[in-house]
Amino acid sequence: MLLSGAEWLAVLRIGLGVWWLESWRHKDKKTWFGGGGIEWAAGIADKHRWTFVRSGFDVVVKPRPRTVAYVVAYAELALGLGLIVGFLTPVALVCGLVLSLIYLVLMIHDWAEQGQNLMMALISVVGLFGMCWQEWSLDEKLGLFL
Question: pTM (2 decimals)?
Fold first, then answer.
């Protein structure tokens, strides 16, 4: 066998990290931080079939679009880097799972978005329960989360 089970889980973790990093990288930062991303999401939330999504968006996101834009973008960057190097991996996996589920619920009507976010959520769960930080990670080198 080329790689052990723990090493395959590390590959999965690193791949998920690259996916999060790409989510951050491909954003047009000028448009995103200028409110474009939040305006787009607001349009989706306004027409959402679930009342709690519409009202939650109105309460949490609409009053602070610039702050949320920065939080989302830099959360994706932090998740990507944290998972790639394996630092605070369980925390990153849980946060990534939450972010993926938020995206999934917001985009419930869009099958393309559902697939991506569902896969990212699934990889997060597998990585978390498989303890994917046991190989090739700073967590392993620092003796964290043993």
Answer: 0.93
